[in-house]
Amino acid sequence: MKAFALERLVPAHVRAFEAYVPAPPDDVLLRRFGVTHLHRLNNNENPLGPPPAARAVLARRDAGEAALYPQGDGWHLRRTLARHFDLEPEQVILGNGASEVIAFVIKTFCEPGDNILTADRTFAVYEWMASFSGIEPRLVPLLDHGFDDVGMLRAIEGRTRVVFLCNPNNPTGSWWDHARLARFLAAVDGRAIVVVDEAYAEFAEAPGFPDSFALMRQHPNLVVFRSFSKMWGLAGLRIGWMAASPPVAAMVRKTSISYSVNLLALEAARATVWDLAHIAATQAHCRAMRAGLAALAGRLGLEMLGGIGNFAMLRMPIPDTVVHRRLMARGVMARAMTSFRYAGWLRVSFGDAEAMAAFAAALEAVLAEG
Ligand SMILES: Cc1ncc(COP(=O)(O)O)c(C=O)c1O
């Protein structure tokens, strides 16, 4: 192969970025860890799967349709969501998962020299996408495992373009209520775009969770993210969305990628809107699994963190990476949190009852080894 000066062609911020390597597929992991079954409790998926209407849509599809492009900007789904949330269809922009929507927002508002603001221990993709786009991510430390509003307000300056809040926060489950988010928006006073990532909003049972779509009417700099991967059980189809005030949405639309959401995702997502029975069943499942995990934590003397969401964190008495490896050898995959700046903690998704029982038995055995 002929050598060429690759380094010269790659911007310094891309060269400096360390690529994220996702876990290998199950068949590879099964062989690697010598197990016959793997309970995946690492991705905050919904063990109930998609609601019945979405399942029916998927079952009806004809394989021949794979040859056709989907409609390019989710015309029908945007209208369905707009009707449900009292928005205009133009305020809704879809993406290949909420992850892709993060990129649209950074591309729209940031150029080199600008910065984005988020927390040090939250969904890492805001930080990563800024870094590999040549935008400086500024990270405000969590306070008591939650977003620090005072610290974030203090950190906003003239080149801060976007503030990313994760509400509830992945991985801690902490959350701001409506009054706190409203106070924060009033204090930001339009100096930056404020994104509130509500990927787990549908898990909120507590009164007082923000009505962000209402706040958007008073604060046109507010952008709300939602995902179909968590509550709606469509993680494998990759679809998420954002809503913004009409002028902000019009800007973001310029950098959004048409046709990036496939036709199965569009149709299945539309069929989920807004199945309250599915939400209630999933919330009940999470309540039961959270209680089971709290009982396990109590028995093993482990600290547990977890508010809103389909996951919780447990503090390990030995390194989380060691626990992770030993759990894998017992056919259970949880998330070791060292790489998320939470050394010593394990994040566990609320899987089905069988997976949670397997996790409990495996963790007891792993910790008994010392
Ligand atoms: C807080 C948060 N936002 C966004 C996402 C991405 O969701 P999607 O699957 O829609 O890309 C996740 C996924 O884990 C998440 O935890």
TrEMBL record:
Pathway: Amino-acid biosynthesis; L-histidine biosynthesis; L-histidine from 5-phospho-alpha-D-ribose 1-diphosphate: step 7/9. Its cofactor is pyridoxal 5'-phosphate. Its EC number is 2.6.1.9. Homodimer. Keywords: Amino-acid biosynthesis, Aminotransferase, Histidine biosynthesis, Pyridoxal phosphate, Transferase. It comes from Falsiroseomonas selenitidurans. Belongs to the class-II pyridoxal-phosphate-dependent aminotransferase family. Histidinol-phosphate aminotransferase subfamily. Belongs to the class-I pyridoxal-phosphate-dependent aminotransferase family. Residues 40-363 form the Aminotransferase class I/classII large domain. This is Histidinol-phosphate aminotransferase. InterPro entries: Aminotransferase_I/II_large (IPR004839), HisP_aminotrans (IPR005861), HistidinolP_aminotransfase (IPR050106), NHTrfase_class1_PyrdxlP-BS (IPR004838), PyrdxlP-dep_Trfase (IPR015424), PyrdxlP-dep_Trfase_major (IPR015421), PyrdxlP-dep_Trfase_small (IPR015422). The keyword Transmembrane helix does not apply. GO terms for molecular function: transaminase activity. The modification N6-(pyridoxal phosphate)lysine is found at residue 230. It catalyses: L-histidinol phosphate + 2-oxoglutarate = 3-(imidazol-4-yl)-2-oxopropyl phosphate + L-glutamate.
